[in-house]
C-alpha cells in the first residue's frame, strides 16, 4: 500500500514535470508559428549592451520577465521604420490585458545622426513604453552582427540613407529567441504568433 | 463665347476619356493630386516623408518636388529585397495616363531633407510638384499637404486604383 502510493506519487510528479516541459520553458523545443519564422534554434542578441536616453545600460537580461520585441532602424527612415513602430503600437493595443508583457525595443542603426534625446522622443511618440537604444558606431556594428542584421549606409548627395533588415525579433520571458516577424505581416498576424510565444514561456 | 462652353468637371472628364482613347493632347495634360500628407516630426528630427496619390490624364512623369520647409527635396523609392529595405533617389516616377500612382510608405515617396523647422501635426506644408508630359512640357502643381501624426501607419499600396474625376 505504502509502496503503491509512493509509485503513484512518483508518476504524478513525473507527469507534472513533463507537463511543465511541454508547456514550455524548454528552450530547445520548436514552435509552430502561423506567420512568423521559428527562431528557437538560433542564438542571437545575447551579448549586446547599449544605452537609453539617460545613459543607462541595457542588455537582453534587462528585459527578463517580459516578452522583448527588438527591431532596428533610424529616425530619418520615412518608410519601414515608422510603419513598423506604428504596427508595434497597434500590436500592443490588440494584445489587450497582456499588452504590458510585450516590451518593444528599437535599436538605432544611425547613431551618428540619431541624437539620443531625439531618438527617444521619436520612438516614444508611438508608445511611451517603447525603449530606444543606441551605442557607438562600433557597438552598433557589433549588435547588428550579433542579430544577423544587414545594414549599409547609402550615400545620397551630401547626405546618406541606411538600407537595413526589417525583421522584428521576439524573445520569450527567459530571454530565449523565439520568433522573427517580417515587415510585411499585419499587426493581427503578429499578435497570433506572439500569443504562441506567450503560451510557451 | 462659344455655346459649347462646358464646366470644368465635364471638361476634365472629357480629357480623361480622350486620354483613354489614346489621343494625344500635349497642351492639355492634367495631373490630379489626392490625399497628400506629410509625416510629423519630433524636435530635432532633420527629415520626413510626404505621400500622395497622383493621376495624370496623359502619360507623364513626376520629375521633381520643391518645398520651402526643407533644404533638399528628393523623390525616393523604397524596395524590399527579401527582408532588407533599400532606399534611394529616383530620377522620375512614371505616371501612366489614367492610372493612380501612390506615393506611400511602401514604395515611392517624397523625402524632405534638412527641415528648416519641426513639422507639427495639423500644420500644412506647401509642395510644388513638377510633372513632365510625353512631349517634355513641364507643369508645376501646387499642393498644400496637411501634416499627419508621426504615428500614422502606412497605407496599402494599390497601384491600380482607377480614380478619375
UniProtKB/TrEMBL annotation, chain A:
Signal peptide extent: 1-23
Gene3D superfamilies per UniProt: Glutaredoxin
InterPro entries listed in its UniProt record: SCO1/SenC, Thioredoxin-like_sf
Keyword list, A-Z: Signal
PANTHER family xrefs: ELECTRON TRANSPORT PROTIN SCO1/SENC FAMILY MEMBER, LINALOOL DEHYDRATASE_ISOMERASE DOMAIN-CONTAINING PROTEIN
Assigned protein family: Belongs to the SCO1/2 family.
Name assigned to this protein: SCO family protein
Species for this entry: Pseudomonas fontis
From TrEMBL, chain B:
Keyword set, alphabetical order: Signal
InterPro entries in UniProt: LpqE-like, Lxx211020-like, PCuAC_sf
DNA-binding recorded as keyword: no
Gene3D superfamilies, per the entry: PCu(A)C copper chaperone (2.60.40.1890)
Signal peptide bounds: 1-29
Entry protein name: Copper chaperone PCu(A)C
Organism: Pseudomonas fontis
Lineage of producing organism: Bacteria, Pseudomonadati, Pseudomonadota, Gammaproteobacteria, Pseudomonadales
Amino acid at each position: 500500500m505504502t509502496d503503491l502510493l509512493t509509485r503513484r506519487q512518483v508518476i504524478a510528479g513525473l507527469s507534472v514535470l513533463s507537463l511543465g516541459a511541454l508547456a514550455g520553458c524548454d528552450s530547445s523545443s520548436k514552435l509552430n508559428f502561423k506567420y512568423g519564422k521559428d527562431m528557437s534554434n538560433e542564438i542571437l542578441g545575447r551579448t549586446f549592451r547599449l544605452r537609453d536616453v539617460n545613459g543607462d545600460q541595457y542588455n537582453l537580461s534587462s528585459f527578463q520577465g517580459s516578452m522583448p520585441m527588438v527591431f532596428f532602424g533610424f529616425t530619418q527612415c520615412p518608410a519601414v521604420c515608422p510603419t513598423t513602430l506604428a504596427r508595434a503600437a497597434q500590436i500592443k493595443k490588440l494584445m489587450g490585458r497582456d499588452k504590458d508583457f510585450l516590451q518593444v525595443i528599437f535599436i538605432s542603426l544611425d547613431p551618428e545622426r540619431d541624437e539620443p534625446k531625439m531618438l527617444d522622443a521619436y520612438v516614444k511618440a508611438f508608445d511611451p513604453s517603447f525603449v530606444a537604444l543606441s551605442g557607438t558606431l562600433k557597438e552598433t556594428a557589433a549588435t547588428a552582427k550579433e542579430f544577423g542584421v544587414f545594414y549599409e549606409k547609402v550615400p545620397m548627395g551630401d547626405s546618406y540613407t541606411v538600407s537595413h533588415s526589417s525583421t522584428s525579433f521576439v524573445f520569450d520571458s527567459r530571454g530565449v529567441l523565439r520568433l522573427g516577424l517580417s515587415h510585411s505581416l499585419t499587426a493581427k498576424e503578429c499578435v497570433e504568433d506572439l500569443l504562441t510565444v506567450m503560451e510557451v514561456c | 463665347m462659344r455655346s459649347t462652353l462646358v464646366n470644368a468637371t465635364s471638361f476634365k472628364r472629357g480629357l480623361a476619356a480622350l486620354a483613354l482613347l489614346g489621343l494625344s493632347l500635349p497642351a492639355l495634360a492634367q495631373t490630379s493630386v489626392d490625399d497628400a500628407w506629410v509625416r510629423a516630426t519630433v524636435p530635432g528630427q532633420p527629415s520626413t516623408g510626404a505621400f500622395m496619390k497622383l493621376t495624370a490624364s496623359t502619360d507623364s512623369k513626376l520629375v521633381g518636388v520643391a518645398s520651402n520647409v526643407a533644404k533638399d527635396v528628393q523623390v525616393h523609392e523604397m524596395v524590399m529585397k527579401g527582408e532588407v529595405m533599400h532606399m534611394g533617389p529616383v530620377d522620375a516616377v512614371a505616371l501612366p495616363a489614367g492610372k493612380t500612382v501612390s506615393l506611400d510608405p511602401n514604395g515611392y515617396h517624397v523625402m524632405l531633407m534638412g527641415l528648416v523647422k519641426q513639422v507639427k501635426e495639423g500644420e500644412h506644408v506647401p509642395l510644388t510638384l513638377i510633372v513632365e508630359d510625353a512631349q517634355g512640357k513641364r507643369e508645376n502643381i501646387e499642393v498644400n499637404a496637411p501634416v499627419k501624426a508621426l504615428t500614422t501607419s502606412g497605407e496599402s499600396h494599390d497601384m491600380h486604383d482607377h480614380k478619375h474625376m
